[in-house]
What we know:
Number of helices: 3
Structural class: mainly beta
CATH topology of the largest domain: Lipocalin
Strand order of the largest sheet: 12-13-14-16-17-20-21-23
Distance between the termini: 108 Å
CATH architecture of the largest domain: Beta Barrel
CATH class of the largest domain: Mainly Beta
Largest sheet: 8 strands, antiparallel, barrel
Shape: elongated
Number of domains: 2
Order of helices and strands: HHEEEEEEEEEEEEEEHEEEEEEEEE
Number of strands: 23
Amino acid sequence: MKNILKHFILIAVTILGTVSCEYDETSFDLQSDAPDPNATYYIQFKNASKSLQTGVAEDGSLVDISTTVTVGLLGLPRTEATVVNFTIDPATTISPNMYQLSATSITIPAGETTGSISLVTNTELMPVAEVLKFILNVDAGENTATAGTRLEYKLERINFCLLTLSDYVGTWTGTDSWGYPTEVTTSLVGGKLMMNGIGFGWFQDWWGEVIVTNNPVEVDVNLITGDFVINDAKQTVPYLVSTYLGALQPAYKIKASGKITSTCEQIIEFTYSFDQGGYFNGTAWGPAFKEVIKHN
């Protein structure tokens, strides 16, 4: 009986030892193995679709678009560097003088699976507010992948005009979200941009109150980003004092936020709320208070 048991244990150990030495390679194992100079590989673009716009520096100057063109190797890393050629697609609409590539081919270093070059626009030569296409095709011969072989970037020089606060002084007209025509006036007082007339149409018609006195409010405008803010905490005097059916009402403050959506055409879009011991923005009775106004 002891001999039989010993023989059985020996067979089991032998089987376990044999099994422990055999396993199937997973896709992770294949990607992690040492480079194989004879292994099959394919080339394709990575991140092959982008929509990019020029930026604006703090001094108001335009910032070039700067990005990368990257190719990837599908398969095991190779023992030698792989040089990948590409061609400019005829459908490209950006002119050659409007951009620069750091190289005319892309190298994937030995032992790696990606390589890239840089693309930088010559923004001053690009047309304003026109989307241009930059399109490349992979040219890796028989090693070209069946997908991801076409790269298309959409590049746009934004329409931006650097203005001073003085450029925003004057009369602005438009329509509010309730359909009332609006006329807003702006002025410079002590170097600060002041605004008056916001919400008058709705206030005097739908709300039914008569404005007795009104005071301009200070506007904070970032001339680079276009951000627009009216902070009611800065209002030391009421924005509006009014009556309803002849009776004097509690005074109103106002707060607002929005953006200069076009610096060149000078269009401001913003939402706002009245404060009469509590904020309200119109949504209790209709759309939120909003105005889109253009400098006349």
